[in-house]
Specification:
single chain; about 180 residues; mainly alpha; two-stranded antiparallel sheet; 5 helices; 2 strands
């Protein structure tokens, strides 16, 4: 089984040392989606049978929150997130460098805000609790600064490599989307 997940067109923007981190976050995302789906089905079944497990809503929301924020971090590394400017695809040379650099700086700033304000929310979350378990909401809020750290890390990775090697992929036109680096 081929373990490589980075497309050849994106390799110039990524350090191989972070491939394992991307793969791990993708696995956590998949586990979260699966856990969310199972918890929702169990919640529906137990409520329909008249024996609700009230704690399932806590489990469902935790899987959803962590899955969404880990998915956001993976999307940042894979550049699958909402692009700030589709115009960059038609640009070449210095204008492309400037617009792509700016876009990634905006994503970096968002990641820094996620770390800072997410950590503040995490610390304040110990004063609010989920019912019926009385678990502090801080544990749900923790997903925000964690994902923010990954967004910052992956944005810096892309900025450094993009400024060194260019943001546009080599052989930009006519590339094969299945071209995976071994």
């Amino acid at each position: 089984m081929d373990q490589h997940i980075v497309l050849n067109r994106d390799r110039h923007l990524k350090w191989p040392a972070f491939d394992w981190l991307e793969r791990g976050l993708m696995v956590l995302c998949g586990v979260s989606i699966f856990g969310f789906s199972v918890a929702v089905v169990c919640d529906i079944v137990t409520r329909t049978t008249g024996t609700p497990w009230l704690w399932l809503q806590e489990v469902t929301s935790a899987f959803f929150v962590y899955g969404a924020f880990f998915g956001l971090a993976v999307a940042t590394r894979r550049a699958d997130h909402l692009m700030l400017s589709a115009v960059t695809e038609s640009l070449r040379g210095l204008p492309r460098q400037i617009v792509d650099g700016f876009n990634r700086c905006v994503v970096l700033a968002c990641g820094l805000c996620m770390v800072w304000f997410g950590w503040e929310n995490f610390l304040h979350g110990f004063g609010s609790f989920r019912m019926p378990s009385l678990t502090p909401l801080a544990w749900w809020y923790l997903a925000v600064p964690l994902a923010g750290v990954f967004v910052v890390l992956f944005s810096i990775e892309q900025l450094v490599n993009g400024l060194r090697h260019g943001f546009a992929s080599p052989g930009h036109a006519g590339e094969d989307p299945e071209d995976i680096v071994p």
